[in-house]
Amino acid sequence: EANVGWHYIAPGKPQQNGFNESFNGRLRDELLNETLFRSLPHARIVLESWRRDYNEARPHSKLGWLTPKAYAEALDRKDRPACCAG
């Protein structure tokens, strides 16, 4: 329906999927390995809090060390940050 294709990566080749490997490693290191979830609702609350921090408050190097929220606001103003113009 959405016309999305499958792409498989070779086993043992994380460099073929660097973005996801980096994200999953960060999630595991910062949250999953450090947290004992009491229940599924507790896990959802904690994961949502981490997701919001990651997507809204944390600066990202690929965005010129802006937060995703600040970067999106700059794009909305058509005032592209120097890191990503072009």
From TrEMBL:
Q: Name one GO biological process term.
A: DNA integration
Looking up PROSITE patterns in the UniProt record yields: INTEGRASE
- Ranges where the Integrase catalytic domain occurs: 1-76
Q: Which InterPro entries match?
A: Integrase_cat-core (IPR001584), RNaseH-like_sf (IPR012337), RNaseH_sf (IPR036397)
A Gene Ontology molecular-function term? Answer: nucleic acid binding
Which source organism does the UniProt entry give? Brevundimonas viscosa
Signal peptide range equals none
Q: What is this protein called?
A: Putative transposase
**The organism's lineage?**
Bacteria, Pseudomonadati, Pseudomonadota, Alphaproteobacteria, Caulobacterales
